[in-house]
Write a structure and sequence with these properties.
6 helices; 12% strand
C-alpha cells in the first residue's frame, strides 16, 4: 500500500466528504430522502466485522423491513476490511453475479 495516500494533505478529500455530509448542507440533502424507501431489488454486501453495519442498534433490521422494500438479503463477507469489493473481489463478485442472475436488469 502507498502510505502517501494518508499523508497530511492527501486524505483531505475524504475528510471533506464527511464534513460536508454531516454539516448543514449535507443534512439538507439527506433530509430530501428521509422517510423514503428503495423499491427495487437490492442486496446489502459488507464485511462481517465492519463497524458501520452494527453502529446503530436495529439498523440492519430496519433496512430489511422498512428502507428496502425488495431486499434480497444481507451478505457479510469474512476476512475483508471496509473496502470489501477491493479486498475480497472474487467473493464480492460471486455474490453480485448471483444477485444479477436472480434479478436481471431489464432492457
Amino acid at each position: 500500500m502507498d502510505t502517501a495516500a494518508f499523508g497530511p494533505r492527501a486524505f483531505q478529500g475524504a475528510l471533506k466528504w464527511f464534513r460536508y455530509h454531516t454539516g448543514p448542507i449535507g443534512r439538507s440533502k439527506i433530509e430530501l430522502f428521509a422517510g423514503r424507501s428503495i423499491d427495487v431489488p437490492c442486496r446489502f454486501i459488507s464485511r462481517a466485522a465492519d463497524w458501520g453495519t452494527y453502529r446503530k442498534l436495529g439498523a440492519i433490521e430496519r433496512m430489511r423491513t422498512t428502507t428496502c422494500t425488495h431486499i434480497d438479503g444481507v451478505r457479510l463477507i469474512e476476512g475483508a476490511g471496509h473496502w470489501v469489493q477491493q479486498e475480497q473481489p472474487e467473493r464480492f463478485n460471486a455474490i453480485l453475479l448471483e444477485f444479477l442472475q436472480r434479478h436481471p436488469v431489464p432492457g
